[in-house]
Amino acid sequence: MARFYDIIYDSIRSHVDTDFYLKRIQQTKGPVLETGCGTGRFFCQAIKQGADIYGIDISKSMINVLLRKTEPEHHKRISIQGAADFQFPFKFDLIIAPFRVYSHLLTVEEQISALNNAWDHLSENGRLIFDLYVPNPAMIASGLSNTVDFDGEYEPGKRFSRTVDMKADIVNQISDITMTFKWHQDGRERVEKWNFKFRFYFRFEIEHLIKRTQLTLEKIYGDFAGGDLKEDSKEFVVICTK
Length: 242
Fold this sequence. Notes:
There is one protein chain. By secondary structure, this protein is of the alpha/beta class. Helix content is 27%, strand content 38%. It contains 7 helices and 11 strands. It has helices at residues 5-12, 14-26, 43-48, 60-69, 108-120, 137-142, 203-211; strands at 32-35, 53-57, 78-80, 92-97, 122-133, 144-155, 158-169, 174-185, 188-199, 216-221, 235-241. Helix 3 links the parallel strand 1 (32-35) and strand 2 (53-57).
């Protein structure tokens, strides 16, 4: 997944949220923390723009890719840590958890720990911004079967594809997802699978969850342009304050 992450999401995701998060980072004068920085989709651009940004991720593979993409002088800003228990000796003016980071937190206890840990690390006027997807009831009911969401070249003349299967546990609000990666290498086709669980949230659940923490909910937008939540919204863009 780490090897092909940039290829996939530069194609199917970057245009959706990049401008929003980079603008917020640029507007922040003090330190910024990117929770779930992955291979550096935001981190690398923010560093080039002179941001005082730090990045954490629980995946060693993702972090290793990011370290290869950044200058050694910035490596001290990158660490393997999780959202619920990361530790820094200073506060941040902005903490972001982009692209469904909190969907990897499956239990309420983990979710509350992550939100309160963000509160602990925010400066007096700091903000936490994260996004989650608005659940699609039809997709939850039907699931996904052998759905190709990416097919292209990862190197000149070498193809790569990703197929997604998903089955949802509606009662526990958890999707069981399997991603199948196929690519050509050394004259033969390689196949690997990655299985993981993903938590989906509903609007009032998010509001009540934040009420149980020390954070204050400022606003939930329905898109990255600052639009209101509507029936056809696909994003929860959540902004909390200290």
